[in-house]
């Protein structure tokens, strides 16, 4: 049990440490003001139903937009186990690479996709040296990390299947646009609940809790700061083998 949690936390740490923070702009109140001193009409008018809908503002939990039918994005889950060549064909060249920090290996982010796909590579023949037009982060002599742009990079062989997906937005996996209760996920028949893990004591992983589910033999780990709700723009998902 301890090894399983520590293994997951290694990936969680990578996710929180390497994912760029989403920029949030200041919310502007766009509600038009009505002049309450305007002269009332002299002729009687028929009462009409007020159909005005207040604009939704982020953070307003009293009037959230409707999520619609809650469903699982199985197309995204089908990308688990895709080979490097298949992902490169689907999303373009790898533009950023890094080390997942657990047992060696590499993660790759592709040109037309923000997600990161992980290969835990242990054998020399699993790599290929290719021209590289992207960037990677390397440890500098002063102990800091900095992005560098090497001319060539060691990448997974084209026929090597990925072993995990990180940096997944929860709203992309569950087709939600606003907050939902965690219990709502139980309505997705394809999911099997596994565990709820409190990692708040670790402090530096960026999230306090991990929700674990099974989809077939794929494990879905939702990292969240909330005990009872799933919040878009606040949660991240890690997809791995069970």
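Sequence proposed for the structure above (242 residues):
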């Amino acid at each position: 049990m301890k090894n399983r949690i520590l293994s997951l936390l290694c990936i969680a740490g990578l996710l929180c440490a390497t994912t760029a923070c989403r920029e949030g702009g200041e919310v502007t109140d766009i509600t038009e003001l009505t002049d309450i001193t305007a002269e009332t009409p002299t002729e009687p008018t028929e009462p009409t139903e007020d159909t005005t809908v207040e604009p939704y503002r982020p953070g307003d939990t009293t009037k959230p937009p409707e999520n619609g039918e809650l469903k699982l994005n199985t197309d995204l889950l089908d990308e688990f186990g895709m080979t490097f060549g298949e992902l490169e064909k689907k999303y373009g060249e790898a533009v950023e690479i890094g080390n997942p920090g657990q047992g060696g290996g590499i993660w790759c982010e592709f040109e037309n996709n923000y997600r990161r796909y992980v290969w835990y590579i242990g054998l020399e023949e699993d790599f290929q040296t290719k021209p590289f037009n992207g960037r990677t982060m390397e440890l500098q002599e002063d102990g800091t990390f900095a992005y560098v742009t090497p001319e060539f990079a060691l990448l997974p062989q084209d026929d090597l299947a990925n072993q995990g997906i990180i940096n997944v937005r929860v709203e992309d996996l569950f087709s939600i646009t606003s907050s939902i209760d965690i219990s709502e996920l139980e309505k997705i028949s394809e999911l099997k609940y596994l565990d709820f893990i409190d990692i708040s004591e670790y402090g530096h992983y960026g999230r306090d809790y991990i929700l674990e589910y099974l989809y077939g033999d794929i494990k879905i780990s939702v990292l969240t700061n909330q005990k009872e709700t799933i919040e878009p723009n606040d949660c991240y998902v890690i997809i791995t083998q069970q």
